[in-house]
Amino acid sequence: MTGSTTPTPKASGTSAKRDAHRRAARLGAVQALYQIAIGGATPEVVRSEFLEQWLDEEIEGLSLSTADRDLFDRLVMGVSDETENLDNMLTAVLAENWPVERLETLLKMILRAGAYELGHWQDVPAQVVISQYVDLAHAFYDGKQPGMANGVLDRLARLLRPEEFGGEGFGDTVIPEAG
């Protein structure tokens, strides 16, 4: 990770063709959010530069030219606009001794994007959203981070969308409203 302005995923298998455009958008958005976090540029500038520079690139076997640009834009701008709220949501489901600030920057961007999507769009089932972001974590990490992403997003999804999990919740845990 050190010395790189945009994290590059390690090699992995292929994805389902029907989800490729959304997967590419999520991957591009997480990378753009990472650039915003480490570079300090505005979301508008990074989004624009990212689309210009990466349109012809292929990452993880996905061409960003086929990315769902609406999803990319909504993720980059939405996560940027709601960072504090998203961090509060993540804090509610993280272990008490593991604050959001302690998370590695890329993992934090994956979790923020996943939390934003879970909280704002009911059109994609929670299990699909979780799976997509866990796959992204696997694209960058070999260690425990994908498992952590899975656990955090699963717990958050059960709080945000209990109806998708048979009404299972986590007792008195309260999370801030999304959006």
If you had to describe this structure to a student in words, what would you say it looks like?
By secondary structure, the chain is an all-alpha fold. The protein has one domain: NusB-like (N-utilizing Substance Protein B Homolog, Chain A), CATH 1.10.940. 58% of the residues lie in helices and 2% in strands. It contains 7 helices and 2 strands. It has a two-stranded antiparallel sheet. β1 and β2 form a beta hairpin. α5 packs parallel to α7. It is globular and about 40 Å long. The N and C termini lie far apart (31 Å). About 8% of the residues have low confidence.
CATH topology: N-utilizing Substance Protein B Homolog, Chain A
Strand order of the largest sheet: 1-2
Task: Just give the CATH class.
Answer: Mainly Alpha
The overall average pLDDT, rounded, is 81
Quick one: how many beta strands?
2
Tell me the name of the CATH homologous superfamily.
Answer: NusB-like
CATH architecture: Orthogonal Bundle
Classify the secondary structure makeup into a structural class. mainly alpha
Total helical segments = 7
Order of helices and strands: HHEEHHHHH
Taking the sheet with the most strands, its summary is:
2 strands, antiparallel
- Low-pLDDT regions: 10-18, 171-176
Shape call: globular
Number of domains: 1
Q: Could you tell me the strand content as a percent range?
A: under 5%
Helical content (DSSP H or I, runs of 4+): 55-70%
- Provide the gyration radius in Å: 15 Å
What gap, in angstroms, lies between the N and C termini? 31 Å
